[in-house]
Amino acid sequence: MTRTSIYDTTLRDGSQGEGVNFSLQDKLLLTKRLDELGVDFIEGGYPLSNPKDFEYFQAVRNLKLCHAKVVAFGMTRRKNSPPENDIGLNALLDSGTTHVTIVGKTWDFHVTEVLNASLDENVAMIADSVRHCVEQGRTVFYDAEHFFDGLKANRGYALRTLRVAAEAGASAVILCDTNGGTMPEFVADAVRQVRELVPCEVGIHCHNDCDLAVANTLAAVRAGATQVQGTMNGIGERCGNVDLVSVVANLAVKYGHDVLVPGSLGRLTEASRYVYELANMNFRNGQPFVGASAFAHKGGMHTHAVAKNPTSYEHIEPTLVGNERRLLVSELSGQSTILAKTTKYAVGHDKALMTRILTTVQDREFAGYEYEAAEASFDLLVKQAAGLYTPWFERLAYRVNIEQGPAGLVTEATVKLNVAGGVEHTVSEGDGPVNALDAAMRKALLPHFPRLDELQLVDYKVRVVNSKAGTAARVRVVIESRDGDAIWGTVGVSENVVEASWLALADSIEYKLFKDADEAAQ
Question: Using CA atoms in the order 504, 509, 510, 511, what is the torsion angle rounded to 10 degrees?
Fold first, then answer.
């Protein structure tokens, strides 16, 4: 079985993505999680770049890692300066890592126009820097920046830079598609050329500016590259880096390569979502393999076939990568979709019930509801139609007051609920009407249902349904919620955005309470 090593640069290249900013604690937490996943190399950053990266390399020494090697990243020595006196190389060595990555110029245009150095001086900078770190006992990876552009512009010089890095002791030369503009066939041909030239391993580092980073990376591996550099979920500068999630899944499932550590492939979805949470980014629903929609089926013909045999519309079993199959309910659904989604309620093949549910869905969608991203609301709808629904609480009244006072804008919500045969009347302030309502409802319900403390609202979306009605238009509110082990969506529709929010919020809480009750009964 072919072994392909996985080199993660989420903490450096990924953090260069717009809106991405990891704290020191975030970086340490992610290092631990990537190690548990089985990533081979974790690039922690450039120790001379900023105080946070410097502190990271001090703190990471205290982490007990089981598999991964932490790598410090830096540049070749400055021109006309001996390596032993170079502040950047000394920072690399002082980081204390056993592995270092040194990036150097491969494209003659960059050498003369950016570095303002001669071609020979750049070659000496590469050789001196690699040799110096090797002599200090470090394993060195050489990142050939802009390699493919350099190969097109001056093939002989680009290959010369790799040869001197290998001769100086680099254990691998990494071919970087820094501008992300190379095509897969050129990548594959270049990797073959380099493998014939250097005695060390060859790696690949792709950016996604042409949406080809995964294709380019796979082409490189098929041509002989043995190390893949990238980021989790493809985060990074401009259009991002290659998505290691897709690369790992394709290499393991499609090509049978040995990647990560045994048993870790089923944790890809969990790891992907962990990175999104840590980076404070929304999940990408359409992300291959791990996205919430990766194995979601909507059309009646599709869901009918998947219910019979999932391979009819799925290229792999979702659980291989830790994901799950979802059958979406919409006006396009047929009875087979409804039947497949209601099996867990043990309602049998009741055609009248199926028809009633489908009709309700279609009527509600005509009124502005959508259940594709609100499966929890659909579950409650099924329970109601099947006579299995007893509400955990009853809304008696609510009021939201927004007031501009001396201290600024203040939002206050008051709710009156019937819970367990008694009335709870509570009031809370919040950052807005939805936050205030949520706080007031929790205050009323937590004494009766302590596990509601696990509930978190992670996303809130508002969409105008019939914009022609102007300010009287209906709005649809979709809320995404989560607890310790699940994520779900709920929906509410009304001409009043606060009422629509209340309906979605109430469904989310009801779903959580039913979920907890079902778990307790098992």
Answer: 90
